[in-house]
Design a protein that fits this description.
- Helices cover 12% and strands 34% of the residues.
- The protein has 404 residues and is mainly beta.
- The chain has two domains: 70-249, Jelly Rolls; 256-402, Jelly Rolls (Sandwich), CATH 2.60.120.10.
- The strands form three sheets. Strands 2, 3, 4, 5, 6, 7, 8, 9, 10, 11, 12 and 13 form a twelve-stranded antiparallel sheet that branches.
Length: 404
């Protein structure tokens, strides 16, 4: 009997996969179309944002801890001078390694002088801001940051933030501890108000009456005057100790460490190019409509995501098998556990942009395509039932982003 010739991949129709596990699931397997209706109580405004939850791909299977959260429904702490809202592990159980804060400061608005038990990483999403920080050697640093810039303050280093003209700023804060909260900050006003006057007098070498009018309640965020010229502030804080060896700020949006393809780009900031950032690494990912952040995983840390613009769809893969898909929009937060496979696709009509943030000193990812093209072709062919000639056509060199 003559053997049947295998058709090339190009000749085969695109398969309509049902779920490979039993029982079959997914809309493609619902012969009774009434299975797709939803006549009960619902909130269309919310449901319409999550098409992948309403009708997941048929290849999804099992479940996972919820990996979607959002600043859009996080309560704001509003004060004269700005506001803040946060999502920590208390709200988002899966997020063990990173917590996040979204903060707005008016022009002149001040985030009170403070420090944290965790390291702080910031990304400016709107406007501009002046930052100050003092390192453990007594070296002061003052800088202005704008949209697309980042900063990093190691745990315990005191700092302040103030919005600049014309309209202040909004920024993301990430802490290298999922339980860290914006509301357990160590504030300068709190400490002074809870220190006996005679101790303050001895500490500062001034009469106790000097501190008669100190605030008895924390300021947190308050309205101040728009700062003067940057160079004037730098001159005011200069000392014999000199400047810190590395800057505490970095332009991620304009960084040179960028992987670009026709589908978009990935810009990385970690301790290799932003030397002060020892516990947080990040990547700014931009995808054109239809483009794909290729199938990959991260071996060195959980991935905390902040979605800046566009409409993205992400599927997570874990042992089990487990595969779950979710939609993301601006202001949303995603979370991928260490070494879990995933991909992101731009399913909107506009550019998609999001941040990947890791509790690590360096950025690292493993590309599925790169692995397969660096494994002997005969081995891959036996696993996937694809001929070696086709495998030779797989993209090489870790593309990271695949165009539509």
């Amino acid at each position: 009997m003559a053997t049947m010739k295998r058709r090339s991949t190009a000749e085969r129709p695109i398969p309509a996969f049902g779920n490979p596990d039993l029982p079959p699931q997914g809309a493609v397997n619902a012969a009774n179309r009434a299975s797709l209706t939803d006549p009960g109580p619902q909130n269309p405004a919310i449901g319409s944002q999550f098409a992948s939850a309403q009708f997941p791909p048929a290849t999804d299977v099992s479940d996972m801890p919820m990996f979607w959260a959002s600043f859009n429904n996080a309560p704001k702490r509003v004060q004269n001078g700005g506001w803040a809202r946060q999502v920590t592990q208390y709200d988002f159980a899966v997020a063990e390694e990173i917590s996040g804060v979204d903060m707005r400061l008016t022009a002149g608005g001040v985030r009170e002088m403070h420090w944290h038990l965790a390291a702080e990483w910031g990304y400016v999403s709107y406007g501009s801001c002046r930052v100050t920080v003092l390192d453990e050697m007594g070296r002061a640093y003052v800088a202005d940051v704008k949209e697309g810039d980042i900063w990093y303050f190691p745990a315990g280093l005191p700092h302040s933030l103030q919005g600049l003209g014309p309209d202040g700023c909004e920024f993301l804060l990430c802490f290298d501890d999922g339980r860290a909260t914006e509301y357990n900050t160590l504030l300068v006003t709190d400490w002074i108000a809870h220190t006996p006057p005679e101790i303050l007098a001895a500490n500062f070498g001034l009469p106790a009456a000097t501190f008669a009018d100190i605030p008895l309640n924390q300021l947190y965020i308050f309205q101040g005057e728009v700062p003067g010229p940057l160079e004037a502030d730098r001159a005011a804080v200069a000392g014999a100790e000199g400047a810190p060896p590395y800057p505490f700020t970095f332009s991620l949006k304009q960084s040179k460490g960028c992987k670009q393809t026709k589908g978009g780009e990935v810009r990385v900031a970690d301790s290799n190019n932003f030397h002060i950032s020892k516990t947080i690494a990040a990547a700014l990912v931009t995808l054109a409509p239809g483009a794909l952040r290729e199938m990959h995983w991260h071996p060195n840390g959980d991935e905390w995501q902040y979605w800046i613009k566009g409409h993205g769809r992400m599927t997570l893969f874990d042992a089990g098998p487990k595969a779950v898909t979710q939609d993301f929009h601006p202001g949303d937060i995603g979370y991928v556990k260490r070494a879990h496979g995933h991909y992101v696709q731009n399913v909107g009509d506009d550019e998609l942009q999001f941040l990947e943030v890791f509790r690590s000193s360096y950025f690292a990812d493993v590309s599925l395509t790169n692995w397969l093209t660096h494994t002997p072709p005969a081995m891959v062919a036996r696993h996937l039932n694809i001929d070696e000639e086709t495998i030779a056509k797989f993209p090489r060199g870790k593309p990271e982003i695949m165009p539509l």
